[in-house]
Amino acid sequence: MALLQWQGDKSFICRLKFYVVMLKKSTFLLLAGFFISLFVEAQVLRSPDGNFQMEFSLTNKGEPSYQLNFKNKPVVLSSLLGFDLKNDEIDLLEGFQVKNSETSSKDEIWNPVWGEENQIRNHYNEFLVELKQVETGRIIKIRFRLFDTGLGFRYEFPVQENMGHFVVQEERTQFAMAGDHTAFWIPGDYDTQEYDYMESKLTEIRSLMEEAITPNASQTPFSDTGVQTALMMKSADGLYINIHEAALIDYPAMHLDLNDQDLVFESHLTPDSQGNKGFLVTPVQSPWRTVIVGENAAKILESRITYNLNEPSKIENTSWIKPMKYVGVWWEMITGQSSWAYTDELKAVKLGVTDYTQVKPNGKHGATTANVKKYIDFAAKHGFDGVLVEGWNVGWEDWFGNSKDYVFDFLTPYPDFDIDAVRDYAKAKGVQMIMHHETSSSVRNYERHMDEAYQLMKDYGYLAVKSGYVGDIIPRGEYHYSQWIVNHYQYAIEKAAEYQIMVNAHEAVRPTGVARTWPNLIANESARGTEYQAFGGSKANHVTILPFTRQIGGPMDYTPGIFEMDVFNGSHVNSTLANQLALYVTMYSPLQMAADYPENYDRFPDAFQFIKDVAIDWEKSLYLEAEPGYYLTIARKAKDSGDWFVGNVNGMAGRTGQVSFNFLDPSKSYIAVIYADKADAHFKSNPQAYEIKKFAVDAKSVLKQFSAPGGGYAVHIKEATKEELKGLKKLK
Ligand code: NOJ
Ligand code: CA
């Protein structure tokens, strides 16, 4: 294959274009690198399969720029790269020369501790360009990695004489779109991702922004055309394009601000309280900016770019990190039936001063020893690994709204929560306890107590913590996604790892694949979770979008499993019961809750069986049907049992899908138990209309299955003997 081509540039007669077609382990590339450093202004990198082509060049002003094509279709048109710096007269935007460049490639397999599959291939071609700003002598490097599913690139700032510390005013990375794509977006916001998704053309974002910004306990939208990543788009010519970031470490989270005249997105970093967007010290690098692309939506879900761009695990012994299925004292508070708070008498609480023995309990406190024991019994009876308890610790009477620094100590239980008795009871029943730390966004206070709090967990045998960041951040003026607070979330993960504790952080910054490096980060919420179904409802197609957006960065503690859609406070859960079952397959997470009340599971024991059976750790995953906003069908093979599970979630309109079971072993026979919407099911008017069917199936079987509006189906496929198959109808 030809490695080099020389070709005259049509627009600049004297400019040479230099193409490098990547070949694995080519010594020739060394030579190419030499030539590049001397002459080249435009260089081409191809993906291992040759379908992607990324071109890097300097404009005639010396501005770094790149563009990306997929099978000769433009994905990112020529887009500029660089930084505005604070206090520097000369920004890192132009006046650059190529000083050096290198190419390399990698093809390796690694095994995640938990995941959608047990092997991940990390296969890419890399181009690293070193740029020198002539006037200042400053050096930046840009590292591009091109995979068969898209592009990742980051900025690197090596140690150098002219740049030690610097403050970013704005990162100026552009993503110029090739058309007015359809986007699945939520408002760009420095504090929350808890929004319903909008589906619109890029040019319609501005007019829909007001409608999109629904209320939240802490929120700071920043622009009429600002959106969050992971941003999912679809082009008119059938390309699916996803922009996100990977390895967000010691840097503010990136949003995208759209210039809707030119259809160019530009990075918009989360500022700190002073408006600064990152204090950097060399050597340092930005997170990776990712553009995942596919000819169908399933390709976006298959991509492992985000994890691959993160470092391998820093935790050597990972034996304590275990996927968990759990129940908890939670939905009853979310729906308003019980309370986190112990009393209604206190207007304000001062930890260490307020005497809880002097106040009258409100009679609806959820985390009482007796109630917790009930959940432990339920978990033990039905084979759940863990029980979460919220509202166990003092301080909830005024936990948010008052910008209070010292709301919780994470150590002191309420008088009616006997932490010793609970530990002993859980131990006797073989159930693990999950700790809850609502930080009330008082981040400094949490850090102050963190060692003691984690030690308490250790002492009482809690393996995992659910943390939360509701309300405005303290230190006041900081935002949930600024560099300082991003560093806090990371600190909490690493500190927890020291104590061998798994972390599930709600309201923290949305994940960016950091769980590869720190696999004790077993989940985040960091998006609009099931709780919003009790706060007035979420769009019924929400769950068909989340896997393409929020979940690009990592698992979500979505807390599915609601069987009673009309909840205590009068809110309605926009979902059918069968859809709730499917979520255990479609919303990948090594931490899965069965969120409804035990009594509601007792009402539907046949459907509950699926939640009991479904696996939470997978050997492989297949994305069978995918269209964000409309439908998603995933099949997964369980790591331990080898059983297959299929989940389908559906959008607003009824639909009959068709999936082949050709993923099954052709030499084997199986039983499939199908939990599906009845023909008259509907998320609003008839959510509990489900039916359970059993069939004999094999690799030749094809399932044609109806899903109601806001509905879906779940299937458990298990290998079966001839005996077990007797009398069962065959699914053809
Ligand atoms: C918001 C979380 O998402 C929810 O799960 C939790 O119960 C509350 N905060 C209280 O911490
Ligand atoms: Ca939340």
Automatic annotation (TrEMBL):
Signal peptide: none
Keyword Protein biosynthesis: no
Quaternary structure and partners: Monomer.
Positions in coiled-coil regions: none
Known cofactor(s): Ca(2+)
Keywords: Calcium, Hydrolase
Sequence ranges assigned to domain Glycosyl-hydrolase 97 N-terminal in this UniProt record: 45-312
Alphabetical list of Pfam families matching this protein: GH97_C (PF14509), GH97_N (PF14508), Glyco_hydro_97 (PF10566)
Name of the featured protein: Glycosyl-hydrolase 97 C-terminal, oligomerisation
Every Glycosyl-hydrolase 97 C-terminal oligomerisation domain range: 617-718
Residues covered by the Glycosyl-hydrolase 97 catalytic domain: 330-527
UniProt cross-references to InterPro entries, sorted A to Z: Aldolase_TIM, GH, GH-type_carb-bd, GH97_C, GH97_catalytic, GH97_N, Glycosyl_hydrolase_97
GO MF, one annotated term: hydrolase activity
